[in-house]
Amino acid sequence: MDLSPLWITLKVSFAATVFVFITGIAAAWGVNNLKRGKAVIDAVLSLPLVLPPTVVGFILLIALGSNSPIGKLCETFGTRLVFTWQGAAIASAFVSFPVMYRGIRGALEQVDINMIQAGRTLGMKEFTILRKVMLPVAAPGIIASVVLSFARCLGEFGATLMVAGNLPGKTQTMSIAVYTAMQSSNRELAFKWVLIIVFYSLFILVVMNSLASIKGGRTK
Question: How does DSSP classify residue 94?
């Protein structure tokens, strides 16, 4: 049994999760500090959550293709994003970003405003308040957002298939491997990949939920 879909899935999921973790914190913090247009920007950032994966994949395929400005820029450096694991990571990040963003935003909104005001009274800068006050207090919610985003990346199929294709050993993730096995009537192989996905996802959720519980207990 070729395990390359497992390693590709992990590589893609970790890369996408790290990216949306950083951008999700920045976006959530920025939106929470907006005075105007918050509803519109929030809707735009959350849009991939309600769009069909194939629509997301189509948009990314147009944006990252060889005829797009991004695609042409990549070609000048002798690389490309379409039909690569990097493209799969971008697709996964695009789809899982709203999960991370909305989760982190909700966690930051639960921070006691009095703690934030106390930091400002002490002369702390806004970024320092975020780093030393808001993020530690909101850590359980942030960890839960990371878990959900990572799980979303593990199960991503439609957008990844359209952007990265189904290249065995290069871009074929576990979800695509299940689809491929079923297309070739190989139910035994499909069942094996399903079991791996279920048990691995369950293991990640149990571990991360345990960490969230420990962190939550420390902050009480």
Answer: H
Distance, CA of 152 to chain centre: 7
State how far the Cα of 199 lies from the Cα of 38, in Å rounded to an integer: 39
Contact 21, 188 (CB under 8 A): no
pTM for the full predicted model:
0.88
pLDDT tens-digit series, residues 158-170: 899 999 999 999 9
Task: Write the DSSP string, 123-139.
Answer: T--HHHHIIIIIHHHTH
- Give the integer Cα–Cα distance in Å for 137 and 111: 7
Which domains are seen in the chain, by residue range?
Answer: 4-219 (1.10.3720.10)
Q: What is the helix (H) or strand (E) element at residue 73, kind and residue range?
A: helix 69-76
Task: Identify which has the larger pLDDT, 66 or 48.
Answer: 48
| 39 pLDDT more than 60 | yes
- DSSP 8-class letter at 48: G
Q: In 3-state terms, what secondary structure has residue 51?
A: coil
| Segment 132-147, tens digit of pLDDT | 889 998 988 898 899 8
What are φ and ψ of residue 9, in 5° steps? -60, -45
